[in-house]
Specification:
Order of helices and strands: HHEEHHHHHHHEHEHEHEEH
Radius of gyration: 22 Å
CATH class of the largest domain: Alpha Beta
Helix content: 55-70%
Strand content: 5-15%
Number of helices: 13
CATH superfamily of the largest domain: Cobalamin-binding domain
Strand order of the largest sheet: 4-3-5-6-7
Structural class: alpha/beta
Largest sheet: 5 strands, parallel
Oligomer: single chain
């Protein structure tokens, strides 16, 4: 079971460490454990409790009332909020708990309810993508283990694949063509998969080449497909190269295409990009680009 510092709890719940310490002293709400060297830490049950308390507080329940609740009453209050309130901020907390508990049924209920109310694309943009950003923070701080991350990523991937399969193939021979890939060594494909859906849903043609693609294989596929646009996401540094050098290589090898790039190695990094390389700072940037460059449907 994972251990957390009070700073971890602060980062994951949004509740200041100072406030958490006050709650410990005043309400005996959570009780830190101590290592053999007397260092305070919290366990997974403490994290779940703090996330639940944060959700209740955000929905107007006073901390003094929360402190008086039994665990059963607390769980019932959370369940009522989950069923009655579908705000994305609340559902991100709920998805976090599903990930921690490996609760597939809870995940399905949250995503299905949101999709029914808002549609798949809005659910992804408003709920799942911010949740993935939160997972990224949890991963960087060792707040979740690989099993939990793989579990939730697999479920999200399934949802995106079903949505992609539901989009009809574009038979318009003049439709713009996109080739999507991740550099060699890059495994985090959920954002790229969703980009696949966004393009297909706007009548673009997509070839999806997926994870960890060697440059020579990309060149071969490019010569066969001749896309107007290449899209990739750089979460980590490409194997054997710096980010700038990798993008310069892409620009040189594929001068006739526009290359759209995103990911934390590019966004906000103030890189000097080659002329045919464009930074997509957000999925909204990609949506705008695809819509502005789309080919009208044939009658």
């Amino acid at each position: 079971m994972a251990n957390y510092s009070i700073k971890d709890l602060e980062q994951l719940s949004g509740i200041k460490a100072h406030t958490l310490r006050i709650w410990e002293q005043r309400y005996d709400l959570i009780n830190p454990k101590r290592t053999e060297t007397n260092i305070r830490f919290y366990d997974q049950d403490d994290l779940k409790l703090v996330l639940n308390v944060s959700l209740l507080k955000d929905n107007g329940v006073k901390i003094s009332k929360i402190a008086e609740m039994t665990r059963e009453e607390l769980n019932e209050a959370i369940l009522n909020i989950s069923e009655e309130n579908t705000s994305f901020a609340d559902q991100i907390y709920a998805l976090t708990l599903c990930m921690i508990d490996l609760d597939e049924q809870g995940f399905e209920k949250i995503i299905s309810s949101s999709t029914l109310k808002y549609g798949f694309e809005r659910t992804m943009m408003g709920l799942v993508i911010p949740f993935l950003s939160k997972i990224g923070v949890m991963w960087l701080t060792d707040s979740i283990n690989p099993a939990q991350e793989h579990f939730i990523s697999h479920l999200i991937r399934q949802k995106i694949m079903v949505a992609i399969d539901g989009e009809p193939a574009n038979t318009n021979s003049s439709a713009k063509k996109y080739m999507l890939f991740l550099p060699e060594g890059e495994l985090h494909e959920l954002i790229l998969l969703f980009a696949n859906y966004l393009i297909k849903s706007r009548e673009g043609k997509v070839i999806y080449l997926g994870q960890t693609l060697p440059l020579d294989d990309l060149k071969m596929a490019y010569e066969l497909y001749e896309p107007e646009y290449l899209i990739t996401v750089l979460t980590g540094k490409p194997e054997g190269l710096g980010v700038t050098q990798y993008l310069e290589n892409l620009s040189t090898i594929f001068p006739k295409s526009e290359i759209l790039v995103s990911g934390r190695q590019v966004v906000g990094q103030d890189l000097e990009l080659p002329e045919n390389v464009l930074c997509m700072a957000s999925l909204n940037d990609l949506i705008n680009f695809v819509e502005e460059n789309s080919t009208p449907s044939t009658p």
